[in-house]
Write a structure and sequence with these properties.
three-stranded antiparallel β-sheet, globular, ATP synthase subunit a, proton-transporting ATP synthase activity, rotational mechanism, membrane
Length: about 270
């Protein structure tokens, strides 16, 4: 960064795009560029875009539900019905219990993650430029799923549901017995079983959150590298093919997050 605050090298450009807009909750002030954020810092940009996209999802689906007709549906209604049928079929194939929560949860997870992933297809400098030169923001990242705190928070919510369904279906004693008496059904192996089953249980939310974060962070970084290292007139040679391929990635990652959520909750709902 130069004395005037302008970005002068590709390294500074890449580092600038990887900074979140953060606020220190103790002082309620924005964290300046170069300062080390403390434990109480919150990524405002990730929170803002994830909430806005969640509200957009609710608005679109509610609007379609209110205006749905039995006649010839419009394009938006067709798209929403296809998504609902797809998610509903996936839930029926993978979840073998009975719950009114799983299908709406799977739909919310799939569409919300997909919308957050889609932000990666916007021009890399569009919203950060507006934020810096119009709103005076020191940094701005627009892809919430490229923020590990967002993906792990969503995975933590799924983990809480895993514990809830495990205790609901098996009871506290059954859940404890599952952790202590498997895979070796003998009291002498309780410590070993607890370590193995504990690691297996805790790895579910960690892998769920880190898988989504890693793929979206890598995709965002490639767009930044193309913009930071190539002349502007040649960037489209790589940006366009990567963006087309990235459409598959963002859809696949939303699908994987939804499928793993269904599978984990199905495993937790099994009584045996």
């Amino acid at each position: 960064m130069s004395a005037s605050g302008e970005i002068s090298t590709p390294q500074e450009y890449i580092g600038h795009h990887l900074n979140n807009l953060q606020m220190d909750l103790r002082t309620m002030e924005l964290v300046k560029h170069g300062d080390t954020p403390g434990f109480w810092a919150i990524n405002i940009d990730s929170m803002f875009f994830s909430i806005v996209l969640g509200v957009l999802f609710l608005f679109i689906f509610r609007r379609v539900a209110v205006k749905a007709s039995s006649g010839v549906p419009g394009k938006l209604q067709c798209a929403v019905e296809l998504i609902i049928d797809f998610v509903n079929g996936t839930v029926k194939d993978m979840y073998h219990g009975k719950s009114k929560l799983i299908a709406p949860l799977a739909l919310t997870v799939f569409v919300w993650v997909f919308l957050m992933n889609t932000m990666d297809l916007l021009p890399i400098d569009l919203l950060p430029y507006i934020g810096e030169h119009v709103l005076g923001l020191p940094a701005l990242r627009v892809v919430p799923t490229a923020d590990v705190s967002v993906t792990l928070s969503m995975a933590l919510g799924v983990f809480i549901l895993i514990l809830f369904y495990s205790i609901k279906m098996k009871g506290v004693s059954g859940f404890v017995k599952e952790l202590t008496m498997q895979p070796f059904n003998h009291w002498a192996f309780i410590p070993v079983n607890l370590i193995l089953e504990g690691v297996s249980l805790l790895s579910k939310p960690v892998s769920l959150g880190l898988r989504l974060f890693g793929n979206m962070y890598a995709g965002e970084l490639i767009f930044i590298l193309i913009a930071g290292l190539l002349p502007w007139w040649s960037q489209w040679l790589l940006n366009v093919p990567w963006a087309i391929f990235h459409i598959l990635i963002i859809t696949l990652q939303a699908f994987i997050f939804m499928v793993l959520t269904i599978v984990y909750l199905s495993m937790a709902s099994e009584e045996h």
